[in-house]
Design a protein that fits this description.
The protein is mostly beta strands. It has one domain: Beta-galactosidase, Chain A, domain 5. It is 1% helix and 48% strand. The protein has one helix and 28 strands. The strands form seven sheets. Strands 11-12-13-14-28-24-23-18-21 form a nine-stranded antiparallel sheet, with no helix packed on it. The radius of gyration is 18 Å and the shape is globular. The relative contact order is 0.18.
């Protein structure tokens, strides 16, 4: 394990075991890099960079977007800052640019914490705690959040890792997504409906080549794994290497983004694979929104499996 100071992403905490290595950055408690052997599983970023396109960030207390940053909870209306001004949305929560503190560290694991203060638009205080561990079975992240305020708090959570396969283009990748329905969106990427995808061009329940399809898509109505969770897999053709992102049963939705709106070298270079507890705009719709009672602690786990090479 090691701790390194870097100017833009803060302290760096590196963990290593079983041929796997990961680095977590202080700013945002972000998963900055993850490698299995010599395979850089994440399309990450340098220690002295600002996380591009939300790479590796934790998205809390909501994932994705809230229309106009406005929502009503338990009869009171709130207005959040418009952090996606071009689309007039509030995006990806409130914790991703804060400094997280080191709580525990071991050679193979690190735990970081962040106290989210009550603020305009989200007047509840939370304590977030994330434990990262690597080993021969891959990377595992355990998330906790405790409502430290005196009222019920709305909560949603996701993560934003970009995964890549060595020498395999996005077009040639075999993609499996366990969703039987997808969210239809408007030009602001906000939900306008939910449609079944079985047998359509958006059906990836069985792995198939992506081709030229552009994705910034949310799937629900999940086919679950035997443990009650679900997973998304990208694989090289012909039985080549594969990467699986998994989430436990708290994650009821998956977002996959192929990077077509990114510029420069990051254009269509990797897949953002995001397990989400709720769909976009859940603060307004209430769909799969978690409500945390005062003093309540919520827990979930997700991770990445990639064989060392």
């Amino acid at each position: 394990m090691s701790t390194v100071v870097a100017a833009k992403s803060g302290l760096q905490w590196t963990i290593e075991a079983g041929g796997q290595r990961a680095t977590v950055a202080e700013i945002g408690g972000t998963l900055r890099e993850y490698a299995a052997g010599d395979h850089e599983v994440l399309d990450g970023f340098g220690p002295d960079e600002i996380a591009p396109a939300s790479a590796g960030q934790l998205l809390a207390p909501w994932p994705n977007r809230i229309r106009d940053g406005r929502y009503t909870f338990e009869g009171t209306a709130y207005q959040l800052p418009l952090t996606e001004p071009g689309k007039h949305n509030a995006i990806h929560g409130l914790s991703n640019w804060a400094r997280w503190r080191l709580a525990e560290q071991a050679p193979d694991a690190v735990t970081c914490e962040f106290d989210l203060p009550a603020q305009v638009g989200y007047p509840w205080s939370l304590t977030l705690r994330t434990r990262w561990r690597v080993g021969a079975d891959g990377l595992r992240s355990e998330q906790e959040v405790t409502n430290t305020s005196d009222g019920n708090a709305p909560w949603g959570f996701s993560v934003h890792p970009y995964v890549q396969l060595p020498g395999v283009s996005v077009d040639d990748t075999l993609l499996r997504v366990p969703g039987r329905s997808k969210v239809m969106t408007d030009n602001r990427l906000l939900p306008i409906g939910l449609v079944k995808v079985t047998g359509s061009e958006s059906d990836y329940v069985e792995p198939r080549r992506l081709g030229a399809e552009r994705l910034d898509t949310t799937w629900g109505d999940l086919v679950t794994d035997p443990d009650g969770g679900s997973s998304v897999t990208v694989a090289a053709p012909g039985g080549g290497p594969a990467v699986t992102v998994w989430g436990d049963g708290n994650f009821k939705w998956w977002q996959v983004f192929t990077g077509d709106s990114l510029s420069g070298a990051r254009f269509r270079r990797s897949f953002a694979i995001e397990p989400m507890t709720c769909p976009p705009d859940a603060f307004r719709s209430g769909r799969d929104l978690v409500v945390l009672a005062p003093g309540q602690t919520w827990r979930a786990a997700w991770g990445i499996r990639a064989a060392a090479r």
